[in-house]
Amino acid sequence: MARCFNLSRCLLKKQFKVYLYPTNNVSTISVVYANILQVLRESSYYTEDYHSACVFILGIDTTDRDRRRHVAENFVKHVNDLVHSLPPDMWNEGRNHIIFNLYHGTFPDYSDHDLGFDVGYAMIARASANAQMFRRDFDLSFPLFHKEHPLRTSVESVWPLKLEDRHLVTFKGKRYVYGIGSETRDSLYHLHNGRSSVMVTTCKHNTDWKKYEDQSWDYEGIMSNSTFCLTPRGRRLGSFRFLESLKLGCIPVVLSDDWVLPFSEVIDWSQAAIIAHEDSVLTITDILNAIPMQRVLHMKQQARGLYQRYLSSVEKIVTTSIKIVEERINKQKGLPPRQWNTETYNILAQNTDVKEEGCTVILQATAKVSARLNRHIQMLLDLPFIQKDQSTMFSVAYLNYDKLVGDFILLFDERINLSKQELTNIYRVARSEPGRLAGLYGAVHQETADSWTVDFTPLQERSIALPYLLFFKRIFLHDLWQWIPKPAKIIAEKIPQCFTLLLNFMVTEKQFKPPIFVSGRSSEPWIPHRNYSLCLRELVKKVWSSGPLLLSTRMQIDSVVTA
């Protein structure tokens, strides 16, 4: 490790930063690599100062190194020359560099060793990584994904857990009858019975394959209605179907000997996928039938969490890769590793260092002195779980994490008329669901006529917790600045209401659950509506094109119920 990676660039730095070389006009950049570079530039890891960087990313597209694939439209020539033109002190024979690659080698052997240039001591983030040559704890096993894969994650696409599916196992894809990968795929048709087992294969590599295409089985339809989805190897070990299965709520059945599954350095895939030998293909239905329902449900739940947290977008895939390298550095510093599988259920699992109990109140006052304000302050001081802080800005809730104490934050507007018992009960609700926002007032996002609005009209559905009485975990303030993309931060600096929306976005995306709303209050005439819709439209237009990271709920908890 010491010979291949310069730890001194990382160990003494307070923050883990990534430097991106400038792209040039000599070589083309594919959609996939452009997206990889974009999410890195817009992340909290990015730095323009290479002296402060721990890790480096090339501005040369290395994702497709197959000279013959699709007439090599994304194959960059003369990569060795381009690499040799980099400043020698920065390239440093590839040390501390990550090279992203989706397609290695070419027909007929698709060699794992063939990237077409000298990578030096660089780490390879490689799809279709082969266990026989994979350098564990150095290289990264990268997922294979389409160029249409979302740039950022959407929470609306989270599928419901089903107790029973129409099919036990399915597959739809190419049937290879010769060459690498044909041994498994050419046997799949034997499993087809049209009911519990659906195998739809086509010799798509033939020039007349369109004449024989089967339109009676919808690709996503059969996968989303199947408990298990076969994920056999293609010409290379990796398969697009691995991510597609997870996305559609189908447990992947991996038939690809020696494939190092994506991010398996930190993810225990035995909790979410079936990994079988390729030569077991003809008995695979018997193996799947024998799996107990309890394990099936556990695997589906794990699969949903793992996909949504680490694989659901280019942003998630790339930042997960960077976080794995960051964790390696943290281990050298003596820090404990994260619990990657557990975190799919509990976003607070990695924050066990926060031992303080209690709550800091950030009180928004409309006047410096008033009888109402004094009553609220006295009521808050009488509560045993309250800590004290002083500020002149309500937005400090989003900016001053290090100066706050306790494990919870309470945003409180002095215009609220609330009893001590009601406030105590809301706090208990918040502590019972610590991974969510818990508030009294809410609004709902709505899409109308190709536009987005925030509706404050008292409705049954709500999706946005407003900051006029709101409990949440203090660690969320720290997480927010690690999570927020730079374009969103720029928008929020111009429109302060965006910070409220972004806090809702982050917590909803991490937990796949809407905020908790306590009943009894719908709205107040003094609650400002200005700029929320404007901000939402800007965030969707410039950052989350697939829609806001919000989920609606009709559920409310009675604030007068005592524990």
From TrEMBL:
Residues 365-520 form the Glycosyl transferase domain. Residues 13-290 form the Exostosin GT47 domain. The keyword Transferase applies. GO terms for molecular function: acetylglucosaminyltransferase activity; glucuronosyltransferase activity. InterPro entries: Exostosin, Exostosin_GT47, GT64_dom, Nucleotide-diphossugar_trans. Belongs to the glycosyltransferase 47 family. This is Exostosin-1.
